[in-house]
Design goal:
Blueprint: H1 2-24, H2 27-46, H3 56-67, H4 70-73, H5 81-95, H6 98-106, H7 122-195, H8 200-223, H9 230-243, E1 247-252, H10 259-279, E2 284-292, E3 295-302, H11 315-326, E4 331-336, E5 342-349
Parallel strand pairs: 1-2
Antiparallel strand pairs: 2-3, 3-5, 4-5
Helix pairs in contact: 1-2, 1-7, 2-3, 2-5, 3-5, 5-6, 5-7, 7-8, 7-10, 9-10, 10-11
Length: 352
C-alpha cells in the first residue's frame, strides 16, 4: 500500500515536469536527470538505515540535482522541490530534527528569491512543502503498518508456541502419568491372575476406571480444560502406592487452596508418585501437605532409591513441574541420603 502511494505521488510530480520539459525542447536531457533524481530519492526514503539518519550524501546529491538544473530546465523543473521536501522530512523524522523540518518547508518557497522569476513556477514552489508532507505521511503510515503487521505476526507466533508448549506439558503430566499407572496396573493384574488371587477382579475394575480417566484427560488436554483435584489425587496416590505394595502415609494440614496453587501441587503429586513407582523400589512413602507463613509445602519421601541416572538428567516431568511452580513464585527441592531415602519437596506461596 505504501509503495503504491509513493509511486502515485512521484508519478503525479513527474507528469507536469516531463510535459514542461517537452514544451521547452529538452525532454531527453530532463528525463535522464529526473530518472537519476527519482532513483536516488526512492533509495533514500525506502532504505533501512544502518545509522539513524541514513545516507546523508543521497540528500546532498538530491539537493544539488534539485536546484542546479533550474538554471537549465527553467520553470518546468520547479515541482522536484516537493521530492526534496519529502526527503528532508523523512530524515528529520529519523533524527528528530526541527531544523530539518524548517528546511523542508522552505525548500520550495526559497526559490521564489531567484533573480530571474521566469525560471520559477510560483505555484509549484509554494506547493512543494505540501507535496513533501504528503509523501512523508504516506511513508510514515506504511512503515507503521508494517511494524504493526510484524508485531501482530510475532504475537500470533508466540501464542502458537505457548499453546504448543501447554499441550506438550499437559500431555506429559496428565496422560503420561495415567499411562504409567496403567502399565503398573496391568503388571499387577498379570501377577494376581498368575497367583489366582481374588483381588484380580477388583484390579480389573480399577484398570477400566483408569482407562476412562485417561480418555477424560486426553479430552481435557485437547481443549485446554483444567479438572485437577488435589483431594482426589491424594486418594488416588494412596490407592496406587498401596496396590504396588508400598505402605503410604498421608498428612494434610491445609485446605481451601487457590485454584492455581492446587493445580500445581496436583501435578507435583502426580509427578512425585510416578517417580516413586518408576525410579525406586520403595516399601514406604509419606506425603505431607503443610502450610506455614503463607508458604505451602508438599513433601514426598520414600525409601528404596535406585542408583542415580546420568547427572543433570532431570527428566521432562520435573522440567514441566519446575516451569509451573516458578510461574507461581515457587521452587523445587530434591535430596537423597546414603540410606536410600529420597525427599522431594515443592514450595508454592499462597496468594492472599
Amino acid at each position: 500500500m505504501g509503495g503504491l502511494g509513493l509511486a502515485a505521488g512521484i508519478a503525479g510530480l513527474s507528469v507536469p515536469i516531463l510535459s514542461g520539459l517537452a514544451r521547452s525542447g529538452m525532454a531527453a536531457e530532463g528525463a535522464v536527470t529526473l530518472l537519476v533524481l527519482v532513483a536516488l530519492h526512492v533509495k533514500f526514503i525506502t532504505e533501512t538505515p544502518v545509522r539513524r539518519a541514513g545516507a546523508w550524501w543521497i540528500v546532498a546529491v538530491q539537493a544539488w540535482l534539485t536546484y542546479l538544473p533550474l538554471t537549465v530546465f527553467g520553470a518546468a523543473w520547479t515541482p522536484v522541490c516537493g521530492l526534496l521536501a519529502g526527503a528532508l522530512l523523512v530524515m528529520a523524522g529519523r533524527i528528530r530534527s526541527t531544523v530539518l523540518v524548517l528546511l523542508a518547508l522552505a525548500c520550495g518557497p526559497v526559490v521564489l528569491a531567484a533573480p530571474d522569476r521566469s525560471m520559477i513556477d510560483p505555484l509549484w514552489a509554494l506547493a512543494a512543502p505540501l507535496a513533501g508532507l504528503a509523501e512523508y505521511a504516506v511513508i510514515t503510515l506504511a512503515r507503521r503498518a508494517k511494524r504493526l503487521g510484524e508485531a501482530r505476526t510475532d504475537v500470533m507466533r508466540r501464542a502458537v508456541a505457548l499453546e504448543r508448549r501447554r499441550f506438550t506439558r499437559d500431555l506429559h503430566d496428565l496422560v503420561g502419568h495415567r499411562l504409567t499407572v496403567l502399565v503398573l496396573k496391568v503388571q499387577l493384574l498379570e501377577r494376581l491372575v498368575a497367583e489366582q488371587d481374588d483381588k484380580a477382579r477388583d484390579e480389573v475394575s480399577e484398570t477400566l476406571e483408569l482407562l476412562r480417566s485417561l480418555s477424560t484427560d486426553v479430552r481435557a488436554v485437547a481443549h485446554g480444560l483444567r479438572s485437577s483435584s488435589l483431594a482426589a489425587e491424594l486418594g488416588s496416590a494412596r490407592s496406587l502406592l498401596e496396590s504396588a505394595r508400598v505402605r503410604c502415609q498421608i498428612r494434610v494440614s491445609c485446605r481451601d487452596l487457590p485454584g492455581d496453587v492446587e493445580e500445581a501441587l496436583t501435578h507435583a503429586l502426580r509427578e512425585g508418585v510416578t517417580n516413586v513407582l518408576r525410579h525406586a523400589e520403595a516399601r514406604q512413602c509419606s506425603v505431607h501437605l503443610l502450610e506455614r507463613d503463607h508458604m505451602v509445602r508438599l513433601t514426598i519421601r520414600n525409601d528404596g532409591v535406585r542408583p542415580p541416572r546420568r547427572p543433570g538428567d532431570a527428566g521432562q516431568g520435573l522440567l514441566n513441574l519446575a516451569e509451573r511452580v516458578s510461574g507461581l513464585g515457587g521452587w523445587l527441592e530434591a535430596t537423597s541420603s546414603r540410606t536410600g531415602q529420597f525427599t522431594f519437596s515443592v514450595y508454592v506461596p499462597r496468594k492472599k
